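[09:14] KT: can someone run the structure on this one? pasting the chain below
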Amino acid sequence: MKDLKVTFDFNEEADVLHISLGTNEPSFCEEVDDVLLVERGYFSNQITGFQIMDVKYHKIEKVQVTAFVQKALRKEKQQFQAYLKEKSQQVPAMIANGLTRNKRIRRILEEAEA
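[09:31] RB: done, structure tokens below
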């Protein structure tokens, strides 16, 4: 992985601190909580930066980028675990219905054509 050039830009009027990891990849934002937005690359889905809202209001004086990365990844891990739990609950029902792999594929194709 190439060295990243971390830059900080504070918009005083909006009270927002933007932290860019210097990837130059077009990105979208995901809300982690009321204060933190994570920017992810459209193509790589990797973290490309952060936006910290209401910096003066929350009296944020120091920023540790690694803490924001850990917080973002913790939320991502929780979402992935919930997804796996949901999918794992569907498997016994499929087995109980006696669906083989080929029947499942056929059923998916039929539903897509309908």
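[09:33] KT: thanks! The first strand starts at residue 7 and ends at 11.
[09:34] RB: yep, looked fine to me
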